[in-house]
Amino acid sequence: MAEDLLKVFREAETPHVVLTMGKGGVGKTTFSILLGALLAGSGRKVLVASLDQAMHLEEYLGLSGRNRVERVDSNLYAMQVDIGREVRRLGQSYSTLLSQLMPGLKVINVESVVEMIKHAPGFEEEAYLRELARLYALKDFDYIVVDTPPTGLTFRILSLPSLYSFWLDRLLELRERIVSLRYVIARTAGIEREMDDPVLRKLEEQKTLFDELLERMKSQAKTTGAIVATPEPLPVYEALKTLEFLGRMGLPAKIIVANRVLPESLASMMGVSEVQEENLKKLLSAKCPGRCVKLLIPQSPKTPHSLEAVKDLIGSLKIVVEGV
Ligand SMILES: Nc1ncnc2c1ncn2[C@@H]1O[C@H](COP(=O)(O)OP(=O)(O)OP(=O)(O)O)[C@@H](O)[C@H]1O
Ligand SMILES: [Mg+2]
Fold this sequence. Notes:
alpha/beta; Rossmann fold; 12 helices; 9 strands; 51% helix; elongated; binds magnesium ion
């Protein structure tokens, strides 16, 4: 049965990135580990990486550090990203840029610039995006399963490249005009001036990063979106919103997961039988833009807070709708 799930990757090019999304607490991290274990068990070399600052991947797998890849099983590796590192790096690159632009400003207090920039709209998202781009660029793995941050933030991160693309085009045009005008004025005044410009370089670097990432995220061969929900109203609502969002941005959603499904007898004993059934129906009848697999993971009697406990769930997976 588990092999059926892997059919979704039939046309995947490696390295292939799986983005796991869903409401907080529905089992994104658990599913990311489970999928990682499945893929690794089928002979692929897999990295499960978490961008979620709740750091649950680190906890469940007992990782010993952050921002570094650790082997957790044969063929299976894991990494908990701590976004603080990238926030710092990015803040420093912006403060260097500022000091290049304002050479009169002798001492720039990097700490205070980083502190200030950190709260600018889009800054944190850019830091996440750069970490994501780094994961996409990894060549050592066949699959990279990415456990994402909470939905709202993930939407903002994933929207950033197309949102910025338009602005960056305009900004590049403007900056190119400024730089060439400066050059002409300097030449007319008999001053030798470099055409090289740090702002132009920064804008070009951003444009390349965002355009390449957007192309990869939209590619069926390079990306799979996996949406997880528990069979309850809010998680299912959020899952359907996520499906819509991914459809709009053109990111191929190919896996829908109903997690923590209770056996009928238990659901009815707990009085949640109807709610579960209704929400399962909604989730399983959701339309993916292309072909997709729908998967049911039962509620485990023991909390799956270790690799072994997550692997124990593999035997009881159910593929409900198989569209591949
Ligand atoms: N199938 C399952 N059976 C029993 N417990 C589960 C199952 N799936 C997940 N859990 C438990 O539910 C809790 C939430 O799961 P998990 O941490 O994977 O969700 P998440 O969506 O990543 O949450 P967060 O948004 O907090 O990162 C955890 O305690 C986890 O062990
Ligand atoms: Mg999590």
